[in-house]
Amino acid sequence: MGLRFDPMGGGQFKQALNAIIEAEKQPIKSLTARKELEQSRLKLFSEFKGKFTTIQGILDSVTGYNKFKELKAELGDGSQLMDVRIDKEKANIGSWEVEVKELAERSSMMSNSFSDPNKKVLGLGYISMQMGNGENQDIYVTQDDSSLYGIANKINTLPDAAVKATVLKDSSDPDKPYRLVLSAKKDGAENEVKFPQLYFVDGEEEFYIDRDKGAKNAVLGVDGFEVELNSNESPDFLQGVGVQLKQAKPGQKFTFNIKADHAKVTDKVKKVVDGVNSILDFINKQNQVDEKSDTRGTFAGDTSLQNIEFRLRNLMHEGFGAHFNNEDSFKIIHLSELGIEFDKKGSVTFKEEAFQKALEKDFDGVAEAVSGEKGFVSQLKTVMDGYTQQGNGVLSSREKGIQSRIKQIDESIEMKERNLEKKTQSLTDQFSRLQGSLNNMQKQQSYLSATLGGSSGSPISQLLGG
Q: What global pTM score does this model have?
């Protein structure tokens, strides 16, 4: 039985067209599959590259003696009297006897008392203040501001005001318990604010300074010497050491120690070891393949990764020179002597207790071997920087290679899709013309059949499969 006459786009014509188009799509599907594999490799490679970025950040925090070392402050009973902040790159290890004799105080004044803090009874005027640098600052008060709360709000909303204001309730006078208190924003003698007078006119009640208090510096005893601090918060009390005084206790001395924090140093070195292990574990997993493994989207057998692994393992076995105990005692030390070594599975182990003991025995010697100019961390950083260098680094080159292949595949897919679109249109046009021809033949067959009496043996009927 021959082709039947179907409307355009349906039946056997449509099936034939779809079959041809589907065959033409196969190269595009193959390219799409290749692209997915390359994208899988790129994602995997980005994960691998991220491990280098992580360890580089850790290495930056350990390279060099000042970054390698960690310090801690021990105050004993003095922890109730002060807080301490240490800049480890500037501070030195040491011990001092400290006594907090007096805290720094700030200038302040208290007004006379009033019965209602909201009542506008003060009139017009201004508050005159003299700063520690000799300059004057005047705060003007209008009728709208002429209550205690009004003045307080006026002062506190001024961005350049040297004082802060509050309304205080003093129940020593139950009939008039409210007072205005002005306090300098900073303590210490050099930040002193003097309140010469309050100038107000046309007020219903008198407004004046009832009490005032001058500023003064903090006073400490340090190793038997009396010293002053111009604030309770001193960022440079000692070299690299800032303190914040909390309370004074004259006569109570305490020992202020700055010591090496071996636990923190050990934790940083552990993070370095973990970072190396992360890279080695990744490479090891890529090489774990069997007959069922699909290595097309992985880096199994990749020589670049093998070279990285080889370089890292060799570096971990090298010796690093350092001066131990004194400058005349220079020797080569291996990481295994510091508790860093490979286990039977090929991973790096870190024995924290052994490393801390080495630090306690000779901190400077271990610091030089690990973080010195030619130490382990410095050399490891050089290796990492070489791999991650922008442009011609191994990782950058590999990443660019994968991205380039993906781009080429995208361009090939785009070109083949354009060609397919043209071919689809061409085939559709051809089938459309064929359909039109068959429709005409069908009309002619119907006409001849009617004219010849419905003969079923006509040549056109046989041609059309009738």
A: 0.66
